Amino acid sequence: MLDHLDLTGRKCTAGKKLLCTLEADNILLCTPLLRWYLEHGLELQAVYTTIEYRPQKCLAWFVELVTEARRMGYVDKRKLYLSEVSNC
User: How far, in Å, CA of 62 to CA of 39, rounded?
Assistant: First the structure.
């Protein structure tokens, strides 16, 4: 590492780092990350709030609408443009 510092013209100095992961207060952690921390020795002192998450497809109706419009455009390009104009 000293050779690299010499090559790049940098100096070895002590200073504050951008990230400190030894201690934190009132942070939000998602479940998989919290599970990983716990498996690697994290000691929790308090849990203030939990947020329940139910995985589901977001905006499935919109995805289906766009997909159907694209399929219609492949079949008859006029139908795609006419349906856009009539919705405005």
Answer: 39
Residue 5 · residue 12 · CB < 8 Å: yes
Task: DSSP letter for 56, please.
Answer: -
What is the Cα–Cα distance from 8 to 53, expressed in whole angstroms? 48
| Radius of gyration for the chain, computed over Cα atoms and rounded to the nearest angstrom | 27
| Rounded-to-integer distance, Cα 14 and Cα 11, Å | 10
Q: Please give the average pLDDT of every successive group of 10 residues along the chain, which has 88 residues.
A: 81 64 77 88 86 82 88 69 52
Record the pTM: 0.38
CA separation for the pair 41, 27 (Å, rounded): 17
